[in-house]
Amino acid sequence: MLNTTIYPSHYTEEDIAIYDSLIAQGSTMIGKKISKEEEYLLDLSAKITINKHKGISNNLTPEEIENIRKINTEVMKQQVHVTPEDLVQGDYIIPTNGDEAYLHPFSPLRNITPPGPDLTSNIVIEDNSTDSI
Length: 133
Known about the structure:
By secondary structure, this protein is mainly alpha-helical.
């Protein structure tokens, strides 16, 4: 199976091995296949464990963590996500890291015609039926 995991750029080979091991152990402990929507929880847990092991802190106070937890719980109950207006302009997404804006993948402005020659232009459909309508 092809591994499509994108690891943080600062991870060493040892960190990657630990991450993969933690994901496998977490999946085994759960005992059933988890949905794609919940896989991020294993990913997040593995990354937090590696950061703790390396002594990397998020510098959040217990009050800030509790506030984040409360906000997350409220948002999950609403089941509605609103994208902040400063991250989208028309059909373009504005990355927060300063990269150039790019066209939203579902924008109607996106050219959805596959590149290359039209391979269907020379297809002829013959009607061999003798039935008349």
